[in-house]
Amino acid sequence: MANPFVHLELNTPDTAKTKEFYGKLFGWTFQDNDMGGGMVYSMFKTDGGPGGGIYTHPGAPNQWLAYVGVDDIHAATAKARSLGAKVEVEAREIPHTGWFTVLTDPTGATIALWQPMSK
Question: Is 1 a residue whose pLDDT tops 80?
Fold first, then answer.
């Protein structure tokens, strides 16, 4: 697949309960990262696929969000827009990591794009 899923993210109102559930269900372990401003991003890595993170973002839906890898975040965002996607979050940098965009496709499904920072 030219553009695979590269990261999965779960926004949840109760990260402790969520980590307990997925830890017991799948054996996942989590690494908590202080993002500042009271936000903690709990990373997990699976053995056979993309890893992800769990966090709380008040006001955002309680749901999973899948990220697809792209080579050029701006070109991919523009292409998605030209194909009828609504851009919910314009390309935004995560310092020292990469860039992401959040889209709603023409059918109403949400997906994110991810371009890692060059090494």
Answer: no
For residue 14 the two structure tokens come to: 């109760």
Higher-confidence residue: 2 or 110? Answer: 110
CA dihedral 12, 18, 19, 23 (to 10 degrees): -140
Report angle CA 100, 26, 46 to the nearest 5 degrees: 45
SS (H, E, C) the chain: CCCCEEEEEEECCCHHHHHHHHHHHHCCCCEEEEEECCEEEEEECCCCCCCEEEECCCCCCCCEEEEEECCCHHHHHHHHHHCCCEEEEEEEEECCCEEEEEEECCCCCEEEEEEECCC
Q: All domains of the chain, ordered by start, with CATH?
A: 70-119 (3.10.180.10)
Smallest CA-to-CA distance from 65 within 79, 55, 73, 75 is with 55
Q: Is the pTM of this model over 0.90?
A: no
pLDDT at 119: 56
